Structure formats: structure tokens, C-alpha cells
Amino acid sequence: MIGKVRVRLQKRTLASTRQIDEFDDLLYETTISSVRRRWRAGQGTFVLQSRERATFDAAELAVVLSHFDLGVLESITDFPRGSRKSPKVGIVCERGKFLLKRRSTTRAHPERVHLAHRVQALLTATRFPLPRLISARDGATMLHLRDHLYELFEFVAGHPFEHSVEESRDGGETLAWFHQVTSPIPKLEELPLARGDYHDATGIRTGLCAIGGMLKSHDSFVGQEAELGPLTSELLASYDKWSELATQRGVTQYPPHLIHADWHPGNILFRQRKVVAVVDYDSLRLSKRIIDVANGALQFSIMAGGDPVTWPDHPDEGRYRAFLEGYEARWPLTPEERNCLPPLMAEALISECVPPIAETGSVGPWAGFRVLQMVRRKLTWLAENEHMLLRDSSGP
Prior knowledge:
The chain folds into 2 domains: 53-156, Phosphorylase Kinase, domain 1, CATH 3.30.200.20; 165-392, Aminoglycoside 3'-phosphotransferase, Chain: A, domain 2 (Alpha-Beta Complex), CATH 3.90.1200.10. It contains 11 helices and 13 strands. The protein has helices spanning 32-41, 58-65, 110-125, 165-182, 202-214, 225-248, 289-301, 317-330, 335-339, 341-360, 368-392; strands at residues 9-10, 73-78, 88-93, 96-104, 143-145, 148-154, 194-195, 257-259, 268-271, 274-278, 285-287, 362-363, 366-367. It is globular. The termini are far apart. The relative contact order is 0.14.
């Protein structure tokens, strides 16, 4: 019985962490009211959210795991990856290796989690590469205890993205596979899917205003206060420009589609340069497939590593081209969709960085101000070299 097993938490990890920490709840779903509440709570000093990770305790684990038929436990290991607010542990037991994840019901509505599980079951039936959900003793794949939801997944062995062209191509092809499987789902508009995305998002504008007006006291901006306001204003103007261009090119006219909404290498495991598992279906939403494609092209091609000040302005052209070639090998884009890629990539770049900076003042280990400077440089390159991206996305 689980109650007789001594639970030991080890300090090693089962996988490397992503370069930029996940931020599960995209800022475009928030409003300025939450920012103002944190401002008032600090009585004039902006209150940043804690960067500490939520954790399980031994008693909680004993109760949760008693609902699953896992046999004798050998070890339970911290898994500090993804959202800091959703703790995870790796489990080695008589039945194999598994990953347990906890989410708060105030941040993850049970209806949406249930829908995500239905989508994962559909994907599993087509042999799509993803970790299998493990049912509890009562047959449910979601355990609801008090204010928390728990999910147990099989553990899939693989390695992180190694920045190869081959991995990028397979990442693009796997996204097209995901879109093909989910495309026939009927009556999407009636499902409890989140709406909205990084295109023309009020929340992103709100976040940029919050950074420029309320975060000057944060350590990452000390000594840069005079430049912070003009920098965020410039990024806001750039976001408006690219958003308008994407709209002019017809992005809002495409049919609705269920999208992954968080397609990046940190949510994919590889083996021998092939995708072996796509994880994290928490952000599923109703949008346009080109929203996924543009974000994926950005994430797989971005040149990063070390201090953001040293990141190259340009993307990796080979990985960018390979990702799109992989996608179009399964499901070709229309010329109009390809034309939307550069402005959407610009919007995605801004949207990737604004939420964590507005929440914590930084992006992972990097100071927010240096990240914003990097974003400005990359946007300048994009504006001057859009023709290169359009050339490389011209299709077969």
C-alpha cells in the first residue's frame, strides 16, 4: 500500500529545463485590473510574483498516488520543468516510469482539462507521439481533490532539442500531423476551448504598458529607468505595426482550428533527431493553424543562448526553412498564409517575452531589460529582411 511506502524526494532532475521558463497562462487572457491590484497591494511599489516553484509534500503524494495502481514505489524525483505553479515529479515504480502533474482549479478549469484529455486520446488513437495518460482506479484520467487537479502520464525517454535541421523538419511535420488529426473535430465553436492568441492581443499591449510604467524599481531595470519607457513604447508601436500588417494580409479570415498554442522545442522530446513525444496540451485553443505554424517557425529557428545581449539578430535560416518544409510535406500552406508568417513571427516574439517580464521582471535567468533590448534588435532585423523569410517560405 502507498501509505507504507517511504516517499523520498531526490534533488536530481529527469530532464533538462527549458531555456526560457514556461508561462502557462498567456498574458492575452489577463487584464490591466490584475496589474493594478498588484500595484495597490504594494502601496506604490509594484508587487512581482514569486519565482519560487510550487512543490508536493509527502503526505499529498501518498494520498494522490493511492488512487492509482502503480505497485511498489522505488523513487519519486523532482521534475522542475515548465510552469513554476504546476509542480511535477517523476515516479519509478513496479509498473514503470511516470510523471505526475498538479494544477490548481483556479487556473485550470476541469472542463478544459477534460477536453484536452479527449484530444490526447484522439491523438493516441492515430499513433501520434505523446505521453499516454494513465487512468486512476476509477477509470478517470483526471483526479480532482479539493482545489487541485492531478494528471499522471507515462514517462517517455528522449533528449531535448539539439538545434539540428533534421529535428526542425520533424518538428514542423509533427505539427502538421497534429493539425490534420484535430481538423475533423466537429462543432469546435461549441467546445469549452480558450479563445484568443498572440495576434492583436490587448493583453500584450497591457503587459508592455505595465512594464514601462510599473517595473522601474525592479532590479533588472535599475540604472536603465530613462531608457525603459522609450523602449517599451517602441516595442508597443512595433507590435501595433506588425499586428496591422498580419490583419491586412488576411490572418483573421482563415477558418477556425484547434491549435496547440505552445509549439516550441521545450515541449518536444527527440530521439535520433526524430520527435518521440509532444507534451503540454494545457494551452489548446480555438484560433487559426497559421498562428501555430508562425510560432513554431520562430521557436525552432531563433538564435539564442547565453546573455541575450549576445544573441544574433537573425534566425537560423536552415532550421526555419526545414520547419516549414516539414510542415508542408504533410499539409501545404496557401500563398496567403505564407505571406502572414513574418508579421506573426514578430508578434509571437514580443508575446513570448512580455508575460514573464510583467510577472517577475525577468525571463528565466535573464534580466527583463536585456531581453527587451534583444527583442528590439531582432524586430529591426525582421523589418529589414522580411523578404528573406518570404523567399524561404515560398513552398515547393
